[in-house]
Amino acid sequence: MSNTxxxxxxxxxxxxxxxxxxxxxxxFHHFEPEQAYHAAKFGMWLFLxxxxxxxxxxxxxxxxxxxxxxxxxxxxxxxxxxxxxxxNTVVLLLSSFSMALGVDAAQHGKNKKVIWCLAFTLxxxxxxxxxxxxxxxxxxxxxxxxxTNLFFALYFCLTGxxxxxxxxxxxxxxxxxxxxxKNRFS
Length: 186
Fold this sequence. Notes:
Distance between the termini: 43 Å
Shape: elongated
CATH class of the domain at 81-186: Mainly Alpha
Largest sheet: none
CATH topology of the domain at 81-186: Four Helix Bundle (Hemerythrin (Met), subunit A)
Helix content: over 70%
Number of helices: 5
Number of strands: 0
Order of helices and strands: HHHHH
């Protein structure tokens, strides 16, 4: 006698009898939706706290050394281009705004808006990295390197680490855009 009836265990897309497959098919199979939400939110806050501690330590080092070596920092900062730095600041603020709009769009299931907002964020990231390229090549052409002095050691450390974050962000945002293109946000 053959059994032709199907159970939730027979179809991997239907969950495993816990009743949450209808809410998130194929997702959160180990957690209830509310628990998964709180775990993800806690994880994001934990990530942000580590970033604040990491960059906070670097900014604290900058502040301490700036107060100790005021003349060195003042003279070295003359090699920086305030227009490029100012432009990058505006670009970062615009990208933060467009990213926030993208998150809001994802929360409201507006996948096309997610894609447009994140595409704008990626354009901002490319502009930021292009300006960093111009700044770095200018420094290198004037024989200014991380080992030049303490100011430039901190400058290259802070801006280089931020650049790495931007590149990682580009990868993550691209992945999120592919999810939005598949209408994964509802």
